Amino acid sequence: MSMRLLTVTVGALLLSTQPACTMLQATVDSPVLAVFTVQGAGPSPMLRALTRAGSCPAVAWDGQPTQPMATRAEPTTVPTRGDSAQAETKPAVLDVRVCEVAWPAGARGAQVADHTLAAPHREIRRIVLLGDSGCRMKASENAFQHCLAPSAWPFAQIARLAADMAPDLVVHVGDLHYRESPCPIQRPGCTNSPWGYGFDAWQADFFEPARPLLARAPWVFVRGNHESCARAGQGWFRWLDSQPWTPTRSCDLTLHDDTADYSAPYAVALSDQTQLLVFDSSKTSGKALPPTSVAYRMYRAQLEQVQALAAAKPNNLFLSHHPLQVFKPVRDGQAPTADGNRGLQSVFSALYPDTLLPPSVSLALHGHVHVFEAISFDTPHPVSLVLGNSGSLNEGAPPASMPPGTPADSGARVADYATQPGYGFATLDMVGEARAGHWLLTEYNAAGQALIRCDIQHKTSRCRPV
Fold first, then answer.
1. pLDDT at residue 1 tops 70
2. Percentage above 90 pLDDT, the chain
3. Cα separations (Å) of 260 from 234, 247, 283, 290, 322?
């Protein structure tokens, strides 16, 4: 073990011995609780700050005189919506002011209070990939993760290690918030943890453990089902959504859910040849959607928007939380079972029966299933990456191997398959010129050890152990 890794691991272990309320004390006492950069569709990423002060903080670009940030959303408390799947609920105390300002062209860095952030890169060559990172506390499933031990919930350690990878961009494929229910007294692993949909739970689940990685690079946030309106959607729209916050896109009132649960897709440029296509699948169903349903109509219209966006660049990477192609975790002796999201498939197959996605999409990135999988096909489907293993309670081991020709969903057949059974994260590095659409994926475990490398090009992936 290297000295750097030993230092990180020991620090994480020391941190884990303290109750959740103690771990958060340093940030609770500071008026500026989090600072980060959200990369959306526009050319200028948005610098955001969360504060308990009565006004927004100022930002200093490259050490120059400060510029005030503007208020995005005021502190508030939102009454319980009444549609939670959990028996015990409480109002969402969103007791922080959300502030933002666009990064000016040419700025090399930003300073907000004691937070220092790296500037966005003009061309993105290294991306850190994360998904499903929060600590599960869910009474309806009697699922209570040990949030205080890095071996059981390693997200803080993963964030520190990923920051050391010097990414140009961070992509989180959704499900950041998991602390939905109070920790039972007989479960010491989550004692004193905040819960519910207020800022305190978001701080414990995401903003505090992710702090070093938030400072390192801009983020693209993909909305997961845990950020739907019936769950943590109020925090999602205030803190992380790339569009302006409005009362109708807030999840505060159920009467606006038909708007708030379906966000328009958008493109994020990585270079003049390559872009991400970000799709909100938070409200999809595990069953096929009836063509007359609101969800079907909304997703159909949004997939048509994806089609138009994809025409702008020759190389496209599609991002949605729910996988179109995945093999679910199995027990010993079970045959691998394809388990892509049936709701999305029912819509996408109507427009693209042979590929599910526009032909210029070569790579699809997802979360939701708490595993890592890299799947390439001998059919024209794009490569599928499932990256849902960054901290939330694992759901079992994926198939250890997959024979070529194994049937997948929507007529696809497996050509190459790779997985690792534990927690981890990945990097995606551009190889050569941007126009080539050539990537090298490296999957790491929670200790930062490289386990798998995949060469990805022309809708094919070839993965090998490191």
1. no
2. 84
3. 10, 9, 10, 20, 18
Q: Which amino acid is at 406?
A: T
Give the residue among 319, 322, 3, 370 at the shortest CA–CA distance from 154: 370
| Token representation of residue 25 | 């004390």
| Whole-number Å distance between alpha carbons of 146 and 190 | 6
Q: Are 201 and 183 in contact, with CB atoms under 8 Å apart?
A: no
Check the CA dihedral 346-350-351-354 and report its sign: positive
User: What is the structure's pLDDT at 330?
Assistant: 78
Q: Which helix (H) or strand (E) holds 266?
A: strand 266-269
pLDDT one-digit tens code per residue, 305-342 = 999 999 999 999 999 999 999 998 877 667 788 999 99
pLDDT surpassing 70 at residue 247? yes
Domains of the chain: 119-465 (3.60.21.10)
Kindly state the tokens that stand for 402: 């997959």
Torsion, Cα 166 172 175 176, to 10 degrees, reads 40
Q: 29 falls in which pLDDT band (50, 70, 90)? A: low
Spell out the alpha helix ranges (H) of 146-256: 155-163, 199-202, 211-216, 233-235
Question: What span, in angstroms and rounded, lies between the C-alpha atoms of 46 and 36?
Answer: 8
CA 222 to chain centre: 5
- Give the span between the Cα atoms of 152 and 12, in whole angstroms: 12
Given a cut of 50, whether residue 435 has pLDDT beyond it is yes
Q: Is 448 helix (H, G, I), strand (E, B) or coil?
A: coil
The bridge status of strand 76-78 relative to strand 92-94 is antiparallel
Contact in structure between 302 and 294 (CB atoms under 8 Å): no
pLDDT of 56 higher than 70: yes
Q: What are 99-140's pLDDT values in tens digits? A: 999 999 889 999 999 999 999 998 899 999 999 999 999 999
How far apart CA 171 and CA 223 sit, in angstroms, is 11
More confident residue, 1 or 367: 367
What's the CA gap between 123 and 423, in Å, rounded? Answer: 29
Q: What is the DSSP string of 275-294?
A: EEEE---TT--SSPPPTTSH
